[in-house]
Design the sequence.
């Protein structure tokens, strides 16, 4: 069992996993990682199961000291991560020694960064998940974001799995981080697109929107031309799917994210397609977004392609590391040392 | 109620099965029936159902089931259901201390409706409210059946913090705040029970479930404190 201590919590760093399932009908939001793509790949890189808990950092990342050695991977937004003062490569499995300090700065691109540790963060399951739900003060680490002095455990009794080291997703996809700065967001219209005037639907699909400052894990507000409802914004409250774009009376759309309330009474003009949700998750206040409508079938083809891509990554990463470095642990006079040997031609 | 369900797109991983365009106990009963039927059928690819007033949000995995096939299955279930054996509705009693510091707006609600505070309490606690659905925040029950004589519009200026357990009125609705949150409801009382407690094995208060009924039982301040203590120590 390893441990990390928080030296600096950052703007908003929480423990997240895939979120709670099965409690929507009790009014319990799913929560979980907002950028499911970066989350999935972070776990993949350190050979964690898909549901392992990771840290999600927002805007400005945390500073952590490792009390045990570990293998970690940082994905998602670029917060210029450093390990003991040296630049840490992202989208790659990296070894961290005991006593090392991982420090994430302010975002250079994107908004949310994911830190996976081989073994996964060890916090109690609450309603089947380790995800932090901030408004309910539950899950994750004491139901809140990390603060200096917090001590977290990670599950990894086997020691460092050196076969993971050096595995790098950039090798396989150089466009990996393009989504962090993407502006085009594809949507499926509905469920209540018929509640809007024809002109407003046109406007919605043909204008640039800007992300408002009011953006959190629940949702992000957009600023743009006012959308008009045919007969008022209210509907009989119904379920809010992930990525739903609801439009209250003020006519400005709000994209609903991981911590969204389960039900709501505003008309929903469209739903962001699954593979574009990570783009929204990585948009920060002031960023521009443009919506383009696609059919459900197109969106599902994209989702299938994404699943194939992850399967492919998973296969590539499972291969024996091409890294020629070898790591040993040597005991000399009862003291343990990590030794790194690299073949040189 | 529609003659047959409408299926509305809700992105690539969910769809809405909508049964009607109004709030009614009959439609809501059919929603619960259908939800039960869908669960019993165990259609592969369905991940989670979210039944609401008059529709069900159906979350599914399109890699496991085609949308068209899913809709075909759902239509079949809709045709075949008559009335499943819905669980016998339970009546959940919620002790509530009306007025005073717990119900800052009781006097206003009374004045607004030309009633005495006692009359408001009598009308509010006489009803057995149908729980239509849960949503909004964890454990929040949407209740039907508020007496029209005590319906009162929301506050013009919402309060920044409303304590958990507060019972309020907003227009034709009444409800209980499960967690502390900002809000504009007219507060008439408070319950010492925890409708939502993340520390509990099952965080949502037992019995708070769509289809059950809820009744408010007026209690004194002394009783309120007594129950609150028991709740804190886990004896209630």
Sequence:
């Amino acid at each position: 069992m390893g441990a990390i201590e928080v030296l600096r919590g950052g703007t908003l760093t929480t423990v997240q996993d895939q979120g709670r399932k099965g409690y929507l009908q009790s009014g319990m939001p799913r929560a979980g990682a907002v950028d499911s793509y970066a989350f999935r790949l972070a776990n993949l890189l350190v050979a964690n199961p898909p549901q392992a808990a990771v840290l999600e950092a927002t805007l400005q990342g945390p500073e952590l000291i490792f009390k045990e050695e570990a293998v970690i991977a940082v994905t998602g937004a670029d917060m210029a991560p450093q390990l003991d003062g040296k630049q840490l490569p992202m989208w790659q499995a990296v070894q961290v020694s005991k006593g090392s300090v991982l420090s994430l700065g302010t975002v250079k691109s994107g908004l949310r960064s994911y830190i996976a540790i081989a073994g996964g963060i060890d916090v109690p399951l609450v309603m089947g998940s380790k995800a932090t739900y901030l408004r309910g003060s539950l899950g994750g680490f004491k139901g809140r974001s990390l603060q200096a002095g917090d001590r977290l455990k990670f599950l990894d009794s086997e020691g460092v799995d050196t076969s993971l080291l050096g595995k790098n997703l950039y090798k396989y996809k150089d466009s990996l981080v393009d989504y962090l700065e993407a502006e085009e967001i594809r949507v499926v219209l509905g469920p209540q697109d018929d509640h809007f005037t024809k002109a407003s639907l046109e406007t919605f699909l043909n204008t640039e929107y800007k992300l408002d400052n009011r953006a959190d894990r629940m949702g992000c507000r957009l600023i743009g031309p006012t959308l008009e409802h045919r007969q008022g914004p209210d509907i009989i409250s119904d379920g809010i799917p992930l990525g739903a774009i609801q439009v209250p009376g003020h006519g400005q759309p709000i994209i609903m994210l991981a911590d969204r309330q389960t039900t709501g009474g505003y008309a929903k003009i469209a739903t962001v397609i699954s593979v574009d949700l990570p783009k929204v998750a990585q948009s920060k206040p002031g960023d521009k977004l443009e919506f383009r409508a696609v059919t459900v079938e197109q969106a599902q083809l994209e989702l299938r392609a994404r699943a194939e891509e992850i399967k492919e990554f998973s296969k590539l990463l499972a291969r024996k590391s091409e890294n020629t470095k070898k790591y040993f642990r040597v005991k000399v006079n009862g003291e343990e040392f990590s030794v790194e040997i690299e073949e040189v031609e | 109620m529609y003659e047959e369900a409408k299926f509305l797109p809700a992105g690539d991983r969910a769809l809405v099965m909508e049964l009607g365009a109004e709030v009614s106990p009959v439609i809501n009963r059919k929603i619960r029936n259908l939800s039960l039927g869908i669960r019993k059928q165990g259609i592969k690819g369905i991940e989670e159902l979210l039944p609401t007033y008059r529709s069900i949000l159906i979350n599914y995995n399109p890699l496991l089931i085609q949308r068209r096939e899913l809709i075909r299955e759902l239509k079949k279930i809709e045709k075949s259901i008559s009335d499943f054996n819905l669980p016998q509705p339970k009546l959940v009693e919620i002790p509530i201390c009306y007025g005073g510091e717990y119900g800052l707006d009781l006097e206003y609600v009374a004045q607004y409706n030309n009633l005495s505070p006692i009359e408001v309490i009598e009308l509010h606690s006489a009803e057995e409210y149908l729980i239509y659905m849960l949503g909004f925040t964890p454990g929040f029950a949407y209740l039907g059946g508020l007496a029209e004589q005590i319906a009162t519009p929301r506050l013009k200026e919402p309060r920044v913090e409303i304590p958990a357990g507060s019972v309020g009125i907003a227009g034709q609705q009444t409800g209980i705040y499960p967690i502390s949150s900002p809000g504009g409801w007219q507060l008439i009382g408070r319950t010492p029970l925890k409708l939502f407690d993340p520390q509990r094995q099952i965080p949502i208060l037992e019995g708070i479930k769509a289809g059950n009924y809820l009744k408010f039982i007026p209690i004194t301040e002394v009783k309120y404190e007594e129950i609150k203590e028991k709740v804190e120590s886990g004896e209630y």
